[in-house]
Amino acid sequence: MIPGYREMMDPIKSFLQDGKTRNRDEIREFVAQYFKLTPYDMSLTVPSRPEALYSNRADFAIHYLYREGYTERTGRGQYRIKQASQTNSHTTQVNEQKQFQSMKPSIVQKSDQLAQSNKQTTTELTPTEEIGRAFEIVHNALAFELLEFVKKMSPSDFENLVVDLLVKMGYGGNLIDAKKMLGKSGDEGVDGVIKEDHLGLDLIYVQAKRYQDTTIGRPSIQQFAGALIGKKAHKGVFIASSTFTKDAKEYAASIENKIVLIDGEQLVNLMIDFDLGVTVISNYQIKKVDLDYFVKD
Length: 297
Hints:
This protein starts with a helix and ends with a helix. Helices cover 54% and strands 15% of the residues. The model is unreliable at 85-104 (pLDDT under 50). It is of the alpha/beta class. The strands form 3 sheets. The chain has a 5-stranded mixed beta sheet with strand order 4-5-6-8-10. It is built from 14 helices and 10 strands. It is globular, with a radius of gyration of 23 Å. Strand 2 (71-75) and strand 3 form a beta hairpin.
């Protein structure tokens, strides 16, 4: 029997306690050996796609260990235990875990709350509701991982990401024109300008800021608003990989010029919605009986 991903987490932590960097394949192999999985167990696949079930669960265990602060990435698909987790006592690890939990982005908090709710109410849910909740958990896990990659981009790569997203959303005309316009001005608090439509009947001024954890306050938005006034512009979008303070949001909503603030969580959700930086691995269709076909007046 293949264990759940939560059951795999503690053995994987023990496996990584020597401090060595291991790739996903090594961790999956360890899981198979530790739980004495049979050839039949290892042949089982995730419904609707040819991915090994034990491998999928091991990957979720790896993801949650990273997300909960026990491990760190050292390269693509490579993980090791965090240094503090190797040498400190269990009490220290628990305190670290509590501190990490309090620093979690809202994406992760939503995912954790949803997973906990699932444990408590699974027996009361219809199959359709269970699928919907599972989808949200997978979506939030993807958003968390995607934001981690975005925060590690260089400022110029982040600007390119912003352009790619805006073009996918229908702004900027074509990609070549959009990239010419963004990242060229660099003055008075504006990173660039992009067409609102393919004809360029109106322009949107753009500020793109890639931060790890810096919270953006009102002064930055005031500077951006001042730049719009100086250019006699009426629309602007401030896209950041971090978050905005409540004061910054209230100021942006109060001024005459239209300024849209997009924080890291909104950014990665838009990336998922418009298939930027993500790949579809499976599609599920939920169908019901078409009563119009069977019931005639």
